[in-house]
Design a protein that fits this description.
The chain has a three-stranded antiparallel beta sheet, with helices on one face. It has a domain of 73 residues. With 105 residues, the chain is mainly alpha-helical. It starts with 7 loop residues before the first strand and ends in an 11-residue tail after the last helix. α1 packs across α2, α1 packs parallel to α3 and α2 packs antiparallel against α3.
Length: 105
Amino acid sequence: MSCTHNQRTRYTYGFYCEDCDNFFGLDTPDYRYDEYIWSLDFVVNNMIVDLKRANKKIPSDMCYIFDRLEHATEGSIADEKLVVDAEALIKKYRGTPNDASMVIK
């Protein structure tokens, strides 16, 4: 039986699933191809919001990656290229994922 990990507690070093009573660290496929995909989606979304607030044009590569993240198949190892592409995009425009935060106004 496969768990959908609906009841999650998120940590900086992974997540704990209350449904299956397991912890998934950063190096596990459950984290990398599920939770991390959504984290990348939030980061890229924040980058787009920052550009919109500044009245700047959103680069086409950012739109493309964001669209792919929004339609990612949850838990699919086939998303490894998407993870690599999203990390490269963040590095290109923000330096590191940790630099890609949004200021709430």
